[in-house]
Protein backbone atom coordinates (compact mmCIF):
# COMPACT_ATOMS: atom_id res chain seq x y z
CA UNK A 1 0.00 0.00 0.00
CA UNK A 2 1.18 3.48 -0.81
CA UNK A 3 0.40 6.27 1.63
CA UNK A 4 0.65 9.83 0.38
CA UNK A 5 -0.37 13.06 2.02
CA UNK A 6 -2.92 15.58 0.80
CA UNK A 7 -3.51 18.97 2.37
CA UNK A 8 -6.54 19.30 4.64
CA UNK A 9 -9.53 21.35 3.55
CA UNK A 10 -11.30 23.66 5.97
CA UNK A 11 -15.06 23.30 6.11
CA UNK A 12 -16.97 26.55 6.23
CA UNK A 13 -18.75 26.90 9.56
CA UNK A 14 -20.69 29.69 11.15
CA UNK A 15 -19.97 28.38 14.66
CA UNK A 16 -23.65 27.94 15.39
CA UNK A 17 -23.85 24.18 14.83
CA UNK A 18 -24.89 22.29 17.99
CA UNK A 19 -22.41 19.87 19.53
CA UNK A 20 -22.74 16.54 21.33
CA UNK A 21 -25.84 14.45 20.82
CA UNK A 22 -27.83 17.55 19.80
CA UNK A 23 -26.05 17.64 16.43
CA UNK A 24 -27.95 14.49 15.40
CA UNK A 25 -31.20 16.49 15.59
CA UNK A 26 -29.85 19.41 13.57
CA UNK A 27 -29.43 20.31 9.92
CA UNK A 28 -25.83 19.12 10.07
CA UNK A 29 -23.49 19.26 7.08
CA UNK A 30 -21.13 16.61 8.48
CA UNK A 31 -21.45 13.48 6.35
CA UNK A 32 -20.86 11.25 9.41
CA UNK A 33 -23.70 12.86 11.34
CA UNK A 34 -25.98 12.59 8.31
CA UNK A 35 -25.04 8.93 7.90
CA UNK A 36 -26.00 8.14 11.49
CA UNK A 37 -29.20 10.18 11.10
CA UNK A 38 -30.09 7.95 8.15
CA UNK A 39 -29.28 4.84 10.19
CA UNK A 40 -31.29 5.72 13.30
CA UNK A 41 -34.23 7.11 11.34
CA UNK A 42 -34.28 4.04 9.13
CA UNK A 43 -34.20 1.71 12.12
CA UNK A 44 -37.17 3.50 13.69
CA UNK A 45 -39.14 2.88 10.50
CA UNK A 46 -37.87 -0.72 10.51
CA UNK A 47 -39.50 -1.19 13.90
CA UNK A 48 -42.73 0.33 12.57
CA UNK A 49 -42.61 -1.87 9.47
CA UNK A 50 -41.89 -4.87 11.68
CA UNK A 51 -45.00 -4.17 13.76
CA UNK A 52 -47.03 -3.99 10.54
CA UNK A 53 -45.49 -7.25 9.34
CA UNK A 54 -46.29 -8.84 12.69
CA UNK A 55 -49.92 -7.75 12.32
CA UNK A 56 -50.00 -9.45 8.91
CA UNK A 57 -48.65 -12.70 10.34
CA UNK A 58 -51.13 -12.59 13.23
CA UNK A 59 -53.97 -12.26 10.74
CA UNK A 60 -52.63 -15.13 8.64
CA UNK A 61 -52.32 -17.46 11.62
CA UNK A 62 -55.96 -18.37 10.97
CA UNK A 63 -57.69 -18.83 7.60
CA UNK A 64 -60.45 -16.30 8.29
CA UNK A 65 -60.18 -12.52 8.68
CA UNK A 66 -60.60 -12.39 12.46
CA UNK A 67 -57.87 -9.98 13.56
CA UNK A 68 -58.61 -7.00 11.31
CA UNK A 69 -61.07 -6.07 8.61
CA UNK A 70 -60.18 -6.85 5.02
CA UNK A 71 -59.73 -3.21 4.03
CA UNK A 72 -57.53 -2.63 7.09
CA UNK A 73 -55.47 -5.67 6.11
CA UNK A 74 -54.93 -4.14 2.67
CA UNK A 75 -53.81 -0.87 4.27
CA UNK A 76 -51.41 -2.62 6.63
CA UNK A 77 -50.01 -4.71 3.77
CA UNK A 78 -49.42 -1.60 1.65
CA UNK A 79 -47.76 0.30 4.50
CA UNK A 80 -45.55 -2.65 5.44
CA UNK A 81 -44.09 -3.04 1.96
CA UNK A 82 -43.65 0.68 1.40
CA UNK A 83 -42.02 1.33 4.78
CA UNK A 84 -39.61 -1.58 4.55
CA UNK A 85 -38.43 -0.74 1.02
CA UNK A 86 -38.48 3.05 0.84
CA UNK A 87 -37.92 3.99 4.49
CA UNK A 88 -35.67 1.22 5.79
CA UNK A 89 -33.57 -0.71 3.30
CA UNK A 90 -32.95 1.89 0.59
CA UNK A 91 -32.09 4.79 2.96
CA UNK A 92 -29.85 2.68 5.18
CA UNK A 93 -27.76 0.67 2.70
CA UNK A 94 -27.38 3.76 0.52
CA UNK A 95 -27.74 6.85 2.68
CA UNK A 96 -26.45 5.67 6.05
CA UNK A 97 -23.33 3.70 5.16
CA UNK A 98 -22.77 5.55 1.89
CA UNK A 99 -22.67 8.91 3.61
CA UNK A 100 -20.49 7.67 6.43
CA UNK A 101 -17.94 5.73 4.39
CA UNK A 102 -17.61 7.17 0.87
CA UNK A 103 -15.77 10.41 1.81
CA UNK A 104 -13.27 8.32 3.82
CA UNK A 105 -12.76 5.94 0.91
CA UNK A 106 -11.99 8.70 -1.60
CA UNK A 107 -9.93 10.75 0.85
CA UNK A 108 -12.38 13.66 1.06
CA UNK A 109 -13.43 15.79 4.02
CA UNK A 110 -17.12 15.59 3.14
CA UNK A 111 -19.54 14.82 0.32
CA UNK A 112 -19.40 16.88 -2.87
CA UNK A 113 -22.61 18.78 -2.00
CA UNK A 114 -22.99 18.87 1.81
CA UNK A 115 -26.16 20.97 1.85
CA UNK A 116 -27.85 18.83 -0.79
CA UNK A 117 -26.80 15.85 1.31
CA UNK A 118 -28.58 17.26 4.36
CA UNK A 119 -31.67 18.13 2.30
CA UNK A 120 -31.79 14.54 0.99
CA UNK A 121 -31.98 13.21 4.53
CA UNK A 122 -34.48 15.73 5.85
CA UNK A 123 -36.92 14.81 3.08
CA UNK A 124 -37.24 11.34 4.63
CA UNK A 125 -38.81 11.99 8.08
CA UNK A 126 -41.72 14.10 6.72
CA UNK A 127 -42.28 11.56 3.94
CA UNK A 128 -42.43 8.76 6.49
CA UNK A 129 -44.72 10.69 8.81
CA UNK A 130 -47.00 11.53 5.89
CA UNK A 131 -47.19 7.87 4.93
CA UNK A 132 -47.86 6.56 8.45
CA UNK A 133 -50.28 9.34 9.36
CA UNK A 134 -52.42 8.54 6.32
CA UNK A 135 -53.63 5.43 8.17
CA UNK A 136 -55.02 7.55 11.00
CA UNK A 137 -56.22 10.57 8.98
CA UNK A 138 -57.81 9.31 5.78
CA UNK A 139 -57.10 5.60 5.72
CA UNK A 140 -53.93 4.40 4.05
CA UNK A 141 -53.59 3.27 0.45
CA UNK A 142 -54.94 -0.22 -0.20
CA UNK A 143 -53.34 -1.17 -3.53
CA UNK A 144 -50.07 -2.65 -2.27
CA UNK A 145 -46.61 -1.12 -2.68
CA UNK A 146 -46.94 -1.54 -6.47
CA UNK A 147 -50.10 0.66 -6.69
CA UNK A 148 -51.34 -1.11 -9.82
CA UNK A 149 -54.26 0.53 -11.61
CA UNK A 150 -57.16 0.05 -11.88
CA UNK A 151 -57.03 -1.01 -8.20
CA UNK A 152 -55.21 2.17 -7.16
CA UNK A 153 -57.79 4.23 -9.06
CA UNK A 154 -60.89 2.53 -7.64
CA UNK A 155 -59.81 2.34 -3.97
CA UNK A 156 -60.29 5.43 -1.71
CA UNK A 157 -58.42 8.32 -3.31
CA UNK A 158 -57.16 10.25 -0.28
CA UNK A 159 -54.93 7.51 1.07
CA UNK A 160 -53.54 6.74 -2.39
CA UNK A 161 -52.65 10.38 -3.02
CA UNK A 162 -50.85 10.64 0.31
CA UNK A 163 -48.96 7.45 -0.61
CA UNK A 164 -47.94 8.99 -3.94
CA UNK A 165 -46.78 12.23 -2.28
CA UNK A 166 -44.71 10.27 0.23
CA UNK A 167 -43.04 8.11 -2.43
CA UNK A 168 -42.32 11.19 -4.56
CA UNK A 169 -40.51 12.80 -1.62
CA UNK A 170 -38.53 9.63 -1.00
CA UNK A 171 -37.70 9.35 -4.69
CA UNK A 172 -36.43 12.93 -4.70
CA UNK A 173 -34.24 12.13 -1.71
CA UNK A 174 -32.78 9.13 -3.55
CA UNK A 175 -32.04 11.18 -6.67
CA UNK A 176 -30.26 13.89 -4.64
CA UNK A 177 -28.23 11.23 -2.87
CA UNK A 178 -27.35 9.44 -6.11
CA UNK A 179 -26.08 12.63 -7.75
CA UNK A 180 -24.01 13.38 -4.66
CA UNK A 181 -22.42 9.94 -4.56
CA UNK A 182 -21.51 10.00 -8.25
CA UNK A 183 -19.92 13.45 -7.92
CA UNK A 184 -18.06 12.51 -4.73
CA UNK A 185 -16.62 9.26 -6.09
CA UNK A 186 -15.63 10.62 -9.49
CA UNK A 187 -14.59 14.18 -8.61
CA UNK A 188 -13.35 14.24 -5.00
CA UNK A 189 -10.86 11.39 -5.20
CA UNK A 190 -7.44 12.32 -3.92
CA UNK A 191 -4.75 12.97 -6.54
CA UNK A 192 -3.10 9.66 -7.33
CA UNK A 193 -6.07 7.53 -6.28
CA UNK A 194 -7.24 5.56 -9.29
CA UNK A 195 -10.70 4.12 -9.78
CA UNK A 196 -9.37 0.55 -9.67
CA UNK A 197 -7.80 1.28 -6.28
CA UNK A 198 -11.07 2.21 -4.59
CA UNK A 199 -12.64 -0.05 -1.98
CA UNK A 200 -15.38 -2.24 -3.42
CA UNK A 201 -18.14 -0.35 -1.64
CA UNK A 202 -17.32 2.71 -3.77
CA UNK A 203 -17.96 0.68 -6.92
CA UNK A 204 -21.18 -0.69 -5.45
CA UNK A 205 -22.40 2.81 -4.61
CA UNK A 206 -21.35 4.17 -8.00
CA UNK A 207 -23.35 1.47 -9.78
CA UNK A 208 -26.29 1.93 -7.42
CA UNK A 209 -26.29 5.69 -7.91
CA UNK A 210 -26.32 5.28 -11.69
CA UNK A 211 -29.41 3.06 -11.35
CA UNK A 212 -31.05 5.58 -9.01
CA UNK A 213 -30.47 8.56 -11.32
CA UNK A 214 -31.62 6.70 -14.44
CA UNK A 215 -34.67 4.86 -13.09
CA UNK A 216 -36.15 6.89 -10.22
CA UNK A 217 -37.35 9.79 -12.41
CA UNK A 218 -39.37 7.25 -14.42
CA UNK A 219 -41.19 6.18 -11.25
CA UNK A 220 -41.76 9.80 -10.27
CA UNK A 221 -43.31 10.67 -13.63
CA UNK A 222 -45.43 7.52 -13.54
CA UNK A 223 -46.84 8.35 -10.11
CA UNK A 224 -47.59 11.93 -11.19
CA UNK A 225 -49.63 10.57 -14.11
CA UNK A 226 -51.35 8.12 -11.76
CA UNK A 227 -52.28 11.00 -9.46
CA UNK A 228 -53.82 12.80 -12.44
CA UNK A 229 -55.95 9.72 -13.11
CA UNK A 230 -57.11 9.70 -9.48
CA UNK A 231 -57.69 13.42 -8.95
CA UNK A 232 -58.44 14.84 -12.41
CA UNK A 233 -59.94 11.65 -13.89
CA UNK A 234 -57.57 11.60 -16.84
CA UNK A 235 -57.12 8.40 -18.79
CA UNK A 236 -53.43 7.57 -18.74
CA UNK A 237 -53.85 4.21 -17.01
CA UNK A 238 -57.62 3.96 -16.46
CA UNK A 239 -59.02 1.34 -18.91
CA UNK A 240 -62.55 2.72 -18.63
CA UNK A 241 -61.28 6.03 -20.09
CA UNK A 242 -59.12 4.48 -22.79
CA UNK A 243 -55.97 4.20 -20.68
CA UNK A 244 -53.61 1.24 -20.57
CA UNK A 245 -52.88 -0.35 -17.20
CA UNK A 246 -50.11 -2.51 -18.71
CA UNK A 247 -48.17 0.64 -19.64
CA UNK A 248 -48.17 1.51 -15.93
CA UNK A 249 -46.64 -1.89 -15.17
CA UNK A 250 -43.85 -1.33 -17.70
CA UNK A 251 -43.05 2.11 -16.27
CA UNK A 252 -43.34 0.98 -12.67
CA UNK A 253 -41.08 -2.05 -13.07
CA UNK A 254 -38.54 -0.09 -15.09
CA UNK A 255 -37.77 1.48 -11.71
CA UNK A 256 -38.84 -1.21 -9.30
CA UNK A 257 -36.73 -4.05 -10.62
CA UNK A 258 -33.57 -1.90 -10.57
CA UNK A 259 -34.77 -0.99 -7.07
CA UNK A 260 -33.91 -4.56 -6.07
CA UNK A 261 -30.32 -3.88 -7.10
CA UNK A 262 -30.49 -0.46 -5.44
CA UNK A 263 -31.06 -2.46 -2.25
CA UNK A 264 -28.61 -5.33 -2.80
CA UNK A 265 -25.66 -3.78 -4.68
CA UNK A 266 -24.64 -1.65 -1.66
CA UNK A 267 -25.02 -4.80 0.44
CA UNK A 268 -22.61 -6.57 -1.94
CA UNK A 269 -20.12 -3.74 -1.39
CA UNK A 270 -20.48 -3.77 2.39
CA UNK A 271 -19.92 -7.54 2.61
CA UNK A 272 -16.87 -7.12 0.39
CA UNK A 273 -15.46 -4.69 2.97
CA UNK A 274 -16.28 -6.84 6.01
CA UNK A 275 -15.01 -10.26 4.93
CA UNK A 276 -11.36 -9.37 4.08
CA UNK A 277 -10.89 -7.66 7.44
CA UNK A 278 -12.13 -10.60 9.51
CA UNK A 279 -10.56 -13.26 7.26
CA UNK A 280 -7.18 -11.46 7.16
CA UNK A 281 -7.05 -12.03 3.40
CA UNK A 282 -7.19 -9.78 0.35
CA UNK A 283 -10.56 -9.60 -1.39
CA UNK A 284 -10.48 -12.33 -4.02
CA UNK A 285 -10.90 -11.26 -7.63
CA UNK A 286 -11.15 -7.50 -7.18
CA UNK A 287 -11.23 -6.76 -10.91
CA UNK A 288 -13.85 -9.42 -11.66
CA UNK A 289 -16.03 -8.05 -8.85
CA UNK A 290 -15.84 -4.52 -10.28
CA UNK A 291 -16.88 -5.70 -13.73
CA UNK A 292 -19.62 -7.92 -12.32
CA UNK A 293 -21.12 -4.93 -10.46
CA UNK A 294 -21.21 -2.81 -13.59
CA UNK A 295 -22.63 -5.75 -15.58
CA UNK A 296 -25.43 -6.06 -13.05
CA UNK A 297 -26.11 -2.33 -13.47
CA UNK A 298 -26.45 -2.70 -17.25
CA UNK A 299 -28.53 -5.89 -17.18
CA UNK A 300 -30.62 -4.59 -14.27
CA UNK A 301 -32.11 -1.99 -16.60
CA UNK A 302 -33.31 -4.54 -19.20
CA UNK A 303 -35.04 -7.27 -17.16
CA UNK A 304 -38.10 -5.46 -15.77
CA UNK A 305 -40.79 -7.27 -17.78
CA UNK A 306 -40.13 -10.65 -16.15
CA UNK A 307 -42.64 -9.34 -13.60
CA UNK A 308 -45.22 -9.20 -16.38
CA UNK A 309 -45.25 -12.66 -17.96
CA UNK A 310 -48.97 -12.96 -17.13
CA UNK A 311 -49.84 -9.48 -18.43
CA UNK A 312 -50.34 -10.41 -22.05
CA UNK A 313 -46.71 -9.93 -23.11
CA UNK A 314 -46.00 -11.33 -26.61
CA UNK A 315 -43.81 -14.46 -26.98
CA UNK A 316 -40.78 -12.55 -28.32
CA UNK A 317 -40.82 -10.27 -25.28
CA UNK A 318 -41.11 -13.22 -22.91
CA UNK A 319 -38.12 -14.85 -24.60
CA UNK A 320 -35.97 -11.72 -24.43
CA UNK A 321 -36.65 -11.04 -20.75
CA UNK A 322 -36.20 -14.70 -19.82
CA UNK A 323 -32.75 -14.72 -21.41
CA UNK A 324 -31.76 -11.34 -19.94
CA UNK A 325 -32.89 -12.37 -16.45
CA UNK A 326 -31.03 -15.67 -16.68
CA UNK A 327 -27.87 -13.86 -17.77
CA UNK A 328 -27.93 -11.57 -14.74
CA UNK A 329 -27.36 -14.61 -12.56
CA UNK A 330 -23.83 -14.90 -14.03
CA UNK A 331 -22.26 -11.71 -12.56
CA UNK A 332 -24.15 -12.36 -9.33
CA UNK A 333 -22.70 -15.88 -9.20
CA UNK A 334 -19.23 -14.46 -9.77
CA UNK A 335 -19.56 -12.39 -6.62
CA UNK A 336 -20.75 -15.41 -4.65
CA UNK A 337 -17.64 -17.40 -5.59
CA UNK A 338 -15.44 -14.36 -4.90
CA UNK A 339 -16.79 -14.23 -1.33
CA UNK A 340 -16.30 -17.97 -0.86
CA UNK A 341 -12.73 -17.69 -2.14
CA UNK A 342 -12.11 -14.80 0.26
CA UNK A 343 -13.32 -16.98 3.14
CA UNK A 344 -11.40 -20.05 1.97
CA UNK A 345 -8.18 -20.51 3.90
CA UNK A 346 -8.56 -17.28 5.82
CA UNK A 347 -7.97 -16.71 9.50
CA UNK A 348 -11.67 -16.23 10.09
CA UNK A 349 -12.97 -14.57 13.23
CA UNK A 350 -16.50 -15.91 13.72
CA UNK A 351 -17.79 -12.71 15.25
CA UNK A 352 -21.24 -11.22 14.74
CA UNK A 353 -20.25 -9.28 11.60
CA UNK A 354 -18.94 -12.43 9.90
CA UNK A 355 -21.91 -14.56 11.00
CA UNK A 356 -24.40 -12.10 9.54
CA UNK A 357 -22.29 -11.84 6.37
CA UNK A 358 -22.29 -15.63 5.98
CA UNK A 359 -26.01 -15.69 6.72
CA UNK A 360 -26.44 -13.17 3.91
CA UNK A 361 -24.51 -15.39 1.48
CA UNK A 362 -26.66 -18.44 2.30
CA UNK A 363 -29.96 -16.57 2.12
CA UNK A 364 -29.10 -14.64 -1.02
CA UNK A 365 -28.03 -17.77 -2.88
CA UNK A 366 -31.34 -19.43 -2.00
CA UNK A 367 -33.20 -16.32 -3.16
CA UNK A 368 -31.14 -16.21 -6.33
CA UNK A 369 -31.94 -19.83 -7.20
CA UNK A 370 -35.68 -19.17 -6.91
CA UNK A 371 -35.14 -16.00 -8.95
CA UNK A 372 -33.68 -18.00 -11.83
CA UNK A 373 -36.68 -20.34 -11.58
CA UNK A 374 -39.08 -17.38 -11.73
CA UNK A 375 -37.32 -16.14 -14.87
CA UNK A 376 -38.63 -19.18 -16.73
CA UNK A 377 -42.03 -18.38 -18.23
CA UNK A 378 -43.87 -21.69 -17.58
CA UNK A 379 -42.84 -21.78 -13.94
CA UNK A 380 -43.55 -18.08 -13.39
CA UNK A 381 -47.06 -18.43 -14.82
CA UNK A 382 -47.71 -21.25 -12.37
CA UNK A 383 -46.59 -19.38 -9.24
CA UNK A 384 -47.28 -15.77 -10.25
CA UNK A 385 -48.96 -13.76 -7.47
CA UNK A 386 -48.54 -16.64 -5.00
CA UNK A 387 -46.56 -16.91 -1.80
CA UNK A 388 -43.65 -18.39 -3.74
CA UNK A 389 -42.96 -14.87 -5.02
CA UNK A 390 -43.31 -13.49 -1.47
CA UNK A 391 -40.73 -15.99 -0.24
CA UNK A 392 -38.32 -15.25 -3.10
CA UNK A 393 -38.66 -11.50 -2.60
CA UNK A 394 -37.94 -11.66 1.12
CA UNK A 395 -34.94 -13.95 0.64
CA UNK A 396 -33.51 -11.30 -1.68
CA UNK A 397 -34.35 -8.07 0.16
CA UNK A 398 -34.32 -9.23 3.81
CA UNK A 399 -31.85 -12.08 3.52
CA UNK A 400 -29.79 -10.07 1.04
CA UNK A 401 -29.95 -6.59 2.59
CA UNK A 402 -31.11 -6.59 6.21
CA UNK A 403 -28.61 -9.28 7.20
CA UNK A 404 -25.87 -7.09 5.71
CA UNK A 405 -27.18 -4.03 7.55
CA UNK A 406 -26.78 -5.90 10.84
CA UNK A 407 -23.34 -7.19 9.81
CA UNK A 408 -22.30 -3.63 8.98
CA UNK A 409 -23.53 -2.25 12.30
CA UNK A 410 -21.51 -4.86 14.19
CA UNK A 411 -18.45 -4.09 12.06
CA UNK A 412 -18.56 -0.28 12.09
CA UNK A 413 -20.14 0.31 15.51
CA UNK A 414 -16.66 0.84 17.07
CA UNK A 415 -16.04 3.52 14.45
CA UNK A 416 -19.39 5.20 15.13
CA UNK A 417 -19.11 5.24 18.92
CA UNK A 418 -15.57 4.31 19.97
CA UNK A 419 -16.97 1.34 21.90
CA UNK A 420 -17.36 -2.38 21.24
CA UNK A 421 -20.62 -4.28 21.08
CA UNK A 422 -21.17 -7.38 23.21
CA UNK A 423 -20.25 -10.37 21.04
CA UNK A 424 -22.31 -12.90 23.00
CA UNK A 425 -25.46 -10.85 22.48
CA UNK A 426 -24.50 -10.36 18.83
CA UNK A 427 -24.17 -14.11 18.21
CA UNK A 428 -27.49 -14.72 19.97
CA UNK A 429 -29.06 -12.01 17.80
CA UNK A 430 -27.76 -13.72 14.66
CA UNK A 431 -28.93 -17.18 15.73
CA UNK A 432 -32.49 -16.12 16.49
CA UNK A 433 -32.69 -13.92 13.38
CA UNK A 434 -31.39 -16.65 11.06
CA UNK A 435 -33.67 -19.33 12.48
CA UNK A 436 -36.70 -17.03 12.59
CA UNK A 437 -36.15 -15.71 9.06
CA UNK A 438 -35.89 -19.15 7.48
CA UNK A 439 -38.75 -20.53 9.57
CA UNK A 440 -40.91 -17.62 8.43
CA UNK A 441 -40.19 -17.55 4.71
CA UNK A 442 -38.93 -21.01 3.65
CA UNK A 443 -42.40 -22.62 4.16
CA UNK A 444 -43.93 -19.94 1.96
CA UNK A 445 -42.31 -21.57 -1.08
CA UNK A 446 -44.52 -24.60 -0.42
CA UNK A 447 -47.57 -22.38 0.02
CA UNK A 448 -46.96 -20.76 -3.35
CA UNK A 449 -46.28 -24.01 -5.18
CA UNK A 450 -49.58 -25.32 -3.86
CA UNK A 451 -51.53 -22.27 -4.95
CA UNK A 452 -51.95 -19.90 -1.99
CA UNK A 453 -52.34 -16.38 -3.44
CA UNK A 454 -50.52 -13.45 -1.86
CA UNK A 455 -52.12 -10.25 -0.55
CA UNK A 456 -55.19 -11.99 0.85
CA UNK A 457 -56.44 -12.00 4.45
CA UNK A 458 -58.42 -15.24 4.04
CA UNK A 459 -57.24 -18.50 2.52
CA UNK A 460 -58.04 -22.18 2.13
CA UNK A 461 -57.91 -23.95 5.55
CA UNK A 462 -55.49 -26.56 4.13
CA UNK A 463 -52.74 -23.92 4.41
CA UNK A 464 -53.36 -23.18 8.10
CA UNK A 465 -50.52 -25.19 9.69
CA UNK A 466 -47.84 -23.88 7.32
CA UNK A 467 -49.02 -20.31 7.87
CA UNK A 468 -48.84 -20.83 11.63
CA UNK A 469 -45.26 -22.10 11.29
CA UNK A 470 -44.46 -19.00 9.26
CA UNK A 471 -46.02 -16.80 11.94
CA UNK A 472 -43.88 -18.45 14.62
CA UNK A 473 -40.81 -17.58 12.55
CA UNK A 474 -41.98 -13.97 12.34
CA UNK A 475 -42.35 -13.96 16.13
CA UNK A 476 -38.74 -15.14 16.51
CA UNK A 477 -37.59 -12.37 14.15
CA UNK A 478 -39.41 -9.83 16.32
CA UNK A 479 -37.86 -11.26 19.51
CA UNK A 480 -34.38 -11.13 17.94
CA UNK A 481 -34.62 -7.34 17.79
CA UNK A 482 -34.64 -7.06 21.60
CA UNK A 483 -31.06 -8.26 22.32
CA UNK A 484 -29.85 -6.10 19.44
CA UNK A 485 -31.47 -2.95 20.84
CA UNK A 486 -30.18 -3.70 24.33
CA UNK A 487 -26.69 -4.35 22.96
CA UNK A 488 -26.57 -1.10 21.00
CA UNK A 489 -27.83 1.09 23.84
CA UNK A 490 -25.91 -0.58 26.68
CA UNK A 491 -22.65 -0.66 24.71
CA UNK A 492 -22.97 3.02 23.78
CA UNK A 493 -23.24 3.87 27.47
CA UNK A 494 -20.74 1.51 29.05
CA UNK A 495 -19.25 -0.82 26.43
CA UNK A 496 -15.51 -1.57 26.28
CA UNK A 497 -13.40 1.14 24.67
CA UNK A 498 -12.67 0.03 21.13
CA UNK A 499 -9.54 1.98 20.33
CA UNK A 500 -9.00 3.60 16.97
CA UNK A 501 -8.70 0.40 14.92
CA UNK A 502 -9.92 -2.67 16.83
CA UNK A 503 -10.06 -4.85 13.68
CA UNK A 504 -6.58 -3.82 12.47
CA UNK A 505 -8.17 -2.94 9.13
CA UNK A 506 -6.49 -1.20 6.21
CA UNK A 507 -9.34 0.82 4.69
CA UNK A 508 -9.14 4.58 5.23
CA UNK A 509 -11.96 5.03 7.76
CA UNK A 510 -9.90 3.06 10.29
CA UNK A 511 -6.81 5.24 9.80
CA UNK A 512 -8.17 7.94 12.08
CA UNK A 513 -9.61 8.17 15.56
CA UNK A 514 -12.84 6.44 16.61
CA UNK A 515 -15.15 8.35 16.48
CA UNK A 516 -13.50 10.49 13.80
CA UNK A 517 -13.07 14.28 14.07
CA UNK A 518 -15.35 16.64 12.15
CA UNK A 519 -13.15 16.71 9.05
CA UNK A 520 -12.32 12.97 9.26
CA UNK A 521 -8.61 13.32 10.01
CA UNK A 522 -7.02 15.56 12.60
CA UNK A 523 -4.11 16.08 10.26
CA UNK A 524 -3.45 15.08 6.68
CA UNK A 525 -5.56 12.49 4.91
CA UNK A 526 -3.83 9.24 3.89
CA UNK A 527 -3.90 8.01 0.33
CA UNK A 528 -4.70 4.29 0.45
CA UNK A 529 -4.07 2.54 -2.85
CA UNK A 530 -4.28 -1.07 -1.61
CA UNK A 531 -7.19 -1.33 0.84
CA UNK A 532 -7.06 -5.15 0.97
CA UNK A 533 -3.33 -5.64 1.46
CA UNK A 534 -3.57 -8.27 4.21
CA UNK A 535 -0.61 -10.59 4.28
CA UNK A 536 1.62 -8.09 2.48
CA UNK A 537 4.91 -7.37 4.31
CA UNK A 538 5.04 -4.05 6.12
CA UNK A 539 7.80 -2.62 3.99
CA UNK A 540 5.64 -3.12 0.90
CA UNK A 541 2.65 -1.49 2.54
CA UNK A 542 4.75 1.61 3.31
CA UNK A 543 2.32 2.71 6.03
CA UNK A 544 3.02 5.86 8.00
CA UNK A 545 2.75 5.33 11.75
CA UNK A 546 0.79 8.56 12.12
CA UNK A 547 -2.21 6.83 10.54
CA UNK A 548 -3.34 5.16 13.79
CA UNK A 549 -2.79 1.63 12.54
CA UNK A 550 -0.60 -1.08 14.05
CA UNK A 551 2.87 -0.79 12.55
CA UNK A 552 3.26 -4.57 12.54
CA UNK A 553 -0.04 -5.20 10.73
CA UNK A 554 1.56 -6.49 7.58
CA UNK A 555 3.71 -9.08 9.32
CA UNK A 556 0.90 -10.12 11.70
CA UNK A 557 -1.54 -10.77 8.87
CA UNK A 558 0.75 -13.05 6.88
Automatic annotation (TrEMBL):
Question: What's one Pfam family here?
Answer: COX1
**Domain Cytochrome oxidase subunit I profile positions:** 15-529
Q: In which pathway does it act?
A: Energy metabolism; oxidative phosphorylation
State the annotated membrane topology for this chain. Answer: Multi-pass membrane protein
Recite the UniProt keywords alphabetically.
Cell membrane, Copper, Electron transport, Heme, Iron, Membrane, Metal-binding, Oxidoreductase, Respiratory chain, Translocase, Transmembrane, Transmembrane helix, Transport
What EC number(s) would the UniProt record show?
Answer: 7.1.1.9
Task: Please give the Gene3D superfamilies that the UniProt record associates with this protein.
Answer: Cytochrome c oxidase-like, subunit I domain
- Kindly list the places in or outside the cell where this protein is found, as annotated in its UniProt entry: Cell membrane; Membrane
Q: Where is the composition biased (Polar residues)?
A: 543-558
Recorded GO CC terms: plasma membrane
Q: Which family does it belong to?
A: Belongs to the heme-copper respiratory oxidase family.
Q: What is this protein called?
A: Cytochrome c oxidase subunit 1
Gene designation: cyoB
